[in-house]
Amino acid sequence: MRHLQACLLFLTLSMGAMAQAASSHEQQAETFLKLVKADRLVVPVYAQVQQMFVQGFAQNGGTEADAAVLEHFQARANGELDKYVAWPQIKPALVALYTQSFSEAELKELIAFYQSPLGVKVLNQMPALTQQSAELTQARIEKAVPAINAMMDEMSAKLKAKDKS
Questions:
Q1: Within a domain: residue 134?
Q2: Of 33, 34, 61, 136, which has fewest CB within 10 angstroms of its CB?
Q3: Is 127 contained in some domain?
C-alpha cells in the first residue's frame, strides 16, 4: 500500500511539474509572438477583404449614396473574420505551433535575439523588406510570363494536333 501511495504521490508531482514546464514553454511562445507583433499578422487579411468589398461595390454600380450598404457588408465581413482570425481566436493555435516547432530554450534564444539591437532592427525592417522582395519577385515573374504563355499555347496546339491525327 505504501508503494502505491508513493507512486501516486510521485505521479502527481511529476504531472504538476510537467504542467508547469508546459506552461512556461507556452509563456515563452506567447512572449515571442508578442515581441514579433504576431497579433498584427491578420491586419492585411482584413484590409484585403475590405478592398474586395470596395471593388465588388464599384463593379456593381455602387455610388456614394449607397455607401451605407458597403459599410454594412464590410462590418459584417469583419465580424465573420473576427470569429476565425482575430488575435484571441488565432493565438492559441499559434502558441501551439511555436511550442511544437521550438523548444523552450530555443524560444528563449529567439526572444533574446529579437530584444537585441540587431533583432529590433530586423523586426523594424522586415515588413518593408518582405514587401520589396515580393515586388522584385513579381517584376521578374512578369518577364517570364510571355514565354510561359507561349509554351502553354505550344503545348495546347501539340495536344490538339495529336487529337486530330
A1: yes
A2: 61
A3: yes
From residue 51, give the alpha-carbon distance in Å to each of 11, 44, 47, 104, 123. 55, 10, 6, 40, 27
Instruction: Specify if 135 maps to a domain.
Output: yes
CA distance linking residue 83 with residue 78, whole number of Å? 9
Structurally, how many domains does the chain consist of? 1
> Which pTM value belongs to this model?
0.66
Give the total residue count for the chain.
165
Rounded to whole angstroms, how far apart are CA atoms 106 and 98? 10
Q: Is residue 29 domain-resident?
A: no
pLDDT tens digits, 49-81:
999 989 998 999 988 988 899 999 999 999 999
Residue 109 grid cell: 534564444
